[in-house]
Design brief:
The protein is an alpha/beta fold. It has one domain: Rossmann fold (3-Layer(aba) Sandwich), CATH 3.40.50. Helices cover 43% and strands 18% of the residues. The chain is built from eight helices and nine strands. Strands 2-7-1-8-9 form a five-stranded parallel sheet, with helices on both faces. The longest helix is centred in the last third of the chain and has 16 residues. The chain is globular and about 50 Å long. The termini are far apart.
Length: 211
């Protein structure tokens, strides 16, 4: 039996409901590299740039990799409720701008944000219908190697981040999907994220994100 025009339009509208995709994982899992690759491949996603008080690293670009800001300005954003979530990670503050997320969702645009485990847990409470993806390295040995290759952490920081990773992996139940991001196989991780998005768009009951 043929569907009526109204029924077909309703199905089309369901498929157009925007997704909020939350990508998280331990330090060194390759979150930035995966997001950069996704941008380069032209994923139709609104990438929300995180605000942080940490110093800019070499090769990082302000307002592209992060919105680098002062502690005073960050505190002001908290007081004005301008952040969807915020957390102190290894002595620096990170937060997701709420207005940027809302504006994109209101336009019907799929949104991706990168947060730490604390941030993912906070968003889970506020917006449980978001899509939560946990990115992990294949082993603790590879994680340690990646952190060393960045040349941005001291020996003490490396130990701290490695121990934190062990605890963060215990929070896996917060997430909908887990992706193992192997060294030199970033294309595979990106392809798996694309498959997740495709599957979510094919859900009979779409996720409803209201912010």
């Amino acid at each position: 039996m043929k569907k009526s025009r109204c029924e077909s339009q309703a199905l089309f509208n369901l498929s157009k409901r925007p997704l909020l995709i939350v990508i998280s994982g331990p330090s060194g899992a390759g979150k930035d590299a995966v997001l950069t690759k996704m941008r380069g491949e032209g994923f139709p996603l609104e990438h929300i740039v995180t605000v942080t008080t940490r110093p800019k690293r070499d090769k990082e670009r302000n307002n592209v990799d992060y919105h680098f800001t002062s502690m005073e300005r960050f505190q002001e954003m908290i007081e004005r409720q301008e952040l969807l979530e915020w957390a102190n990670v290894y002595g620096n503050w990170y937060g997701v701008p709420k207005a940027a997320v809302k504006q994109a969702l209101d336009k019907g645009q799929d949104v991706v944000v990168k947060v730490d485990i604390q941030g993912a847990a906070t968003i889970k409470k506020i917006l449980p219908q978001a899509v939560f993806i946990f990115l992990v390295p294949p082993s603790m040995e590879e994680l340690t190697l990646r952190l060393k290759q960045r040349h941005t952490e001291s020996s003490a920081d490396l130990d701290l981040r490695t121990k934190a990773c062990e605890e963060e992996i215990k929070q896996l139940s917060l997430f909908d999907y887990v992706i193992v991001n192997k060294q030199d196989e970033i294309d595979l991780a990106v392809a798996e994220i694309r498959a997740i998005i495709t599957a979510e768009k094919c859900r009979v009951t779409p996720r409803e994100i209201a912010l």
